[in-house]
Design goal:
Layout: H1 2-21, H2 24-34, H3 36-42, H4 48-63, H5 73-92, H6 98-121, E1 125-126, H7 127-153, E2 160-161, H8 163-167, E3 183-184, E4 187-193, E5 199-201, H9 208-224, H10 229-244, H11 247-265, H12 269-286, H13 289-300, H14 303-307, H15 311-327, H16 357-387, H17 395-406, H18 414-425, E6 426-427
Parallel strand pairs: 1-6
Antiparallel strand pairs: 2-3, 4-5
Helix pairs in contact: 2-7, 5-6, 5-16, 6-18, 7-10, 9-10, 9-11, 9-17, 11-12, 11-17, 12-17, 17-18
Membrane topology: Multi-pass membrane protein
InterPro entries: O-antigen_ligase-rel_domated, WaaL-like
Organism: Gloeobacter kilaueensis (strain ATCC BAA-2537 / CCAP 1431/1 / ULC 316 / JS1)
Length: about 450
């Protein structure tokens, strides 16, 4: 008994010693990652509000001011895009509400302010710290999924309101289009099945599509680290990705891993760049559901079985894209501000101008002006990330490549913004040579 207590005390002492050795930034990032289930319970769409208030309060408490340097060009473009989206959506929308102002303001404006703060203070966290935090988070996801799938049962997993949904007085019964951040959905059986034929897992993100892209990034993160245990982390993340049933994330992951492998085994920069461009174009085409399913059908020879995989989703997407393209010419300069009516009566999420960031959020909702502003930000940001890539893990650049391709069929929401901010902070160095200044 005494020996067991000594071992327990030793482990606790080791943990406390390791925790004390972390920088303030590393402690903050680790807590934010590990406590994702808590942020999910609160409501992810509004999580930047307490985060921004926390950063501001911490800065004022520690330094008496909020330390922000002169904004770089990509920050100016990002802030301009954020202001444009908020104004355009509320001017052209049916009515101005707190949600119509706060939601885009937090996602785009909050993301821009956090990126500005990170750049201004040179905030970096070590890769190994993020990997350990992700390992804990993935363990949490596996345990919760197993509990919901095998203990409660897929059909009896309840859908309850998040704290945000409760405070906003949302209905107790979940309906499609009521906002994934307002409800706690663990398994989504209403929108098809995953690759294993079960309900799609949301992984504390709120929606299977967004959960899939987040888990694909964890796989890239595991590839960037060193150590045999990372194989377990990557395999677990891939398994969870399959549970989300997200085709675009799976295709995107395969493509960027192929690019990573090609660059690592080839020293011919020109040839590697050429193949990288081919891969980007191929992914942009293959990520379109009808083309993906046609190839799968031809390859497997079982047209009927594979063609039925989320067929309803494919047909609805086709109709959404068709109607969106038809209406692009009605307001090309400033766009329509907000998504249009649903193309499938009784199913609110199937709105014109949805299910694609490039076609819907940019061309349809933001028009030429908004598209130019975002492209300016994305180009400048990617250029800065490439110039500073030498002390970063390769997942930082690969995630940008994957997100760019996935934007053809997936919206750009707060979980993607959060992943970008996280990867910007990660340092490949084993030890921090300079004290972080968060």
């Amino acid at each position: 008994m005494e020996q067991s207590l000594d071992i327990s005390r030793g482990r606790v002492g080791t943990f406390l010693s390791t925790w004390r050795s972390l920088s303030f930034a590393e402690k903050t990032v680790s807590v934010l990652i590990v406590l994702l289930p808590v942020w999910w319970f609160i409501g992810l769409d509004y999580i930047y509000l307490p985060l921004l208030l926390g950063v501001a309060g911490c800065e004022l408490w520690r330094y008496g001011r909020i330390r922000l340097g002169p904004p770089r060009p990509e920050i100016l473009a990002f802030l301009a895009f954020a202001a444009y989206v908020v104004i355009n959506a509320n001017v052209q929308g049916d009515k101005i509400t707190g949600h119509s102002i706060l939601s885009p303001l937090l996602q785009w404006g909050g993301g821009a302010l956090l990126l500005w703060y990170i750049q201004s203070n040179g905030i970096r966290v070590r890769l190994k710290v993020v990997l350990w935090a992700m390992a804990i988070l993935i363990s949490e996801m596996l345990l919760v999924w197993a509990f919901g799938q095998f203990v409660l049962g897929e059909e009896t997993v309840p859908i309850v309101r998040s704290l945000t949904g409760y405070l906003l007085d949302k209905g107790e019964r979940y309906v499609e289009g009521a906002g994934s951040s307002n409800y706690l959905r663990l398994l989504d059986s209403a929108n098809g099945s995953n690759f294993l034929g079960r309900g799609r897992f949301t992984a504390f993100i709120g929606h299977p599509e967004f959960a899939g892209q987040a888990l694909a990034c964890v796989c890239l993160l595991a590839l960037s680290g060193g150590g045999s245990w990372l194989l377990l982390l990557g395999s677990s993340s891939l398994f969870l990705l399959l549970l989300t049933g997200t085709r675009s994330a799976l295709v995107g992951l395969v493509v960027v891993v192929a690019i990573r492998y090609f660059f690592s085994v080839s020293k011919l920069g020109g040839l590697a760049t050429l193949w990288g461009l081919v891969a980007i174009i191929s992914f942009s085409v293959l990520s379109i559901p009808p083309i993906t399913e046609t190839i799968v059908d031809s390859f497997s020879g079982t047209v009927q079985s594979t063609g039925n995989f989320r067929r309803r989703s494919t047909e609805v997407r086709q109709l959404i894209y068709q109607r969106t393209i038809e209406r692009l010419g009605e307001s090309p300069l400033f766009g329509h501000g907000v998504p249009g009516r649903t193309v499938l009566p009784g199913y609110a999420p199937a709105q014109i101008g949805s299910h694609s960031f490039i076609l819907g959020s940019l061309f349809y909702c933001s028009g030429i002006v908004g598209t130019i502003l975002f492209v300016a930000f994305w180009t400048l940001f990617t250029g800065w990330l490439w110039q500073t890539r030498f002390d970063r893990p390769d997942c930082a650049v690969l995630s940008i490549l994957m997100f760019t391709g996935m934007s053809t069929v997936v919206a750009f929401e707060i979980s993607r913004m959060s992943i970008i901010l996280l990867f910007v902070m990660i340092s490949a160095a084993r030890d921090m040579s300079t004290q972080d200044r968060i």
